[in-house]
Amino acid sequence: MNMVLKFPSTSKSKHLNAEQTAEFGRRVEQIRLDVMQSIGEKDAEYIYKIRNFVRYSEIGSRGMLMIAGWLPPVWLLGTGLLGLSKIVENMELGHNVMHGQFDWLNDPSLNGANYDWDTISTGDDWKHTHNYIHHTYTNIVGKDHDVGYGLLRVSESQPWEPRFLFNVPIAMQLMLFFEWYVGLQNLHLEDALIYKTKSWKEVWKDAAKLRLKMRRQVLKDYVFFPLIAGPNMLPVFAGNAVANIIRNLWSSAVIFNGHFTEDTETFEADNVENESRAEWYLRQIRGSSNFTGTEWLHILSGNLSHQIEHHLFPDMPANRYAEVAPKIQALCQEYGIHYNQANFIQQFASVWVRLAKHSLPNQYSLKLSASWKRITGLFAQPY
């Protein structure tokens, strides 16, 4: 049996038979091949520009904070620029480089196996939880830990527990401390804290590399740079802390918009190992969501504004997603597959509706969902 996923009955996508699925997958693969065969100088120029922006914006922002951080306008500018630098480094540089998107350059500084980014999570942990687990088992409940991160309930297939009543406030503090939660994700702390299936001794052992990375990041932002700033120690400390919060809030909002919107589907698997490549492509599309915006919005999101295309082609240079997206959208329209796309604000609002809905047991969440649809339907009526 080839079809291994249980698709939700509420899906907006048309059901495809085996022949249609195979042809759909073939055409998606052809789009990928056309782009991958054209990768070259322009893509190299792009990623080097991004790397230079990260380097010089960090130097400039830290220089402002250390030299004149006691002046409020300088502090605001320096802190904002440092936050921007950290966003671009994490989203457009680090995330994409660690996917191996630029390994073909043979530049050790842009090699996915060697790159380690400016955040709490180690490169090795991220590549396991994200590159392997998440991108292989995208949105499969029980296999993809990104379905709620062990903290949130975002699917009817997740058994309800009383702690999920706090879905919304937990999501808010998850955003505030996002880099720390991402760093800890590979440890599966809920297994030790809640389910008691993992000992704290095992957690401590598994966290060996993470402890080193945590120490390095804390010493860099909160000890080294404040100390060398001398009398500007406090403005530098505060600037680094706020810059990290800016990065955390933005990166988590982008991730939420790509995974937790109302129309993003989750799946149950009987035997995912037998899933065909075409079925995998369909799952990536139905389990993802895009948001529209300006070129700078795409850069600041690491081009995860095109989350559908990223899930389809994680090893493709992300700067090419914008040209691929219209082709994937047209193909989805032809085959009756829902292409989940809206502007940033619409997608972000729907995230919180989903979190609120799934904070309740299923029988109540369905009533809440129906009420919300009636309310939004009233606003949609012409006057």
Description:
There is one protein chain. With 383 residues, the protein is an all-alpha fold. It has one domain (27-345). The chain is 61% helix and 3% strand. It is built from 16 helices and 4 strands. A two-stranded antiparallel sheet has the order 1-2. Helix 10 (233-259) packs across helix 15 (344-357). The longest helix has 28 residues, at 41-68. The model has no long low-confidence stretch (mean pLDDT 92). One of its GO terms (biological process) is lipid metabolic process. GO terms for molecular function: oxidoreductase activity, acting on paired donors, with oxidation of a pair of donors resulting in the reduction of molecular oxygen to two molecules of water. InterPro entries: FA_desaturase_dom, Fatty_acid_desaturase. Residues 74-341 form the Fatty acid desaturase domain. This is Fatty acid desaturase.
The Cα radius of gyration reads 22 Å
Helix-strand makeup class: mainly alpha
Categorize the overall geometry.
Answer: globular
Q: Termini distance?
A: 52 Å
Total discrete domains:
1
Beta-strand proportion: under 5%
- Oligomer state of the chains in this structure: single chain
Strand count: 4
**Proportion in helices:** 55-70%
Total of DSSP H or I helical runs spanning 4+ residues:
16
Order of helices and strands: EHHHHHHHHHHEHEHHHEHH
Low-confidence stretches: none
Q: Would you tell me the overall average pLDDT?
A: 92
> In which order are the strands of the major sheet placed?
1-2
Largest sheet: 2 strands, antiparallel
Protein name: Fatty acid desaturase
Organism: Acinetobacter calcoaceticus
Pfam family, one: FA_desaturase
Domain Fatty acid desaturase: 74-341
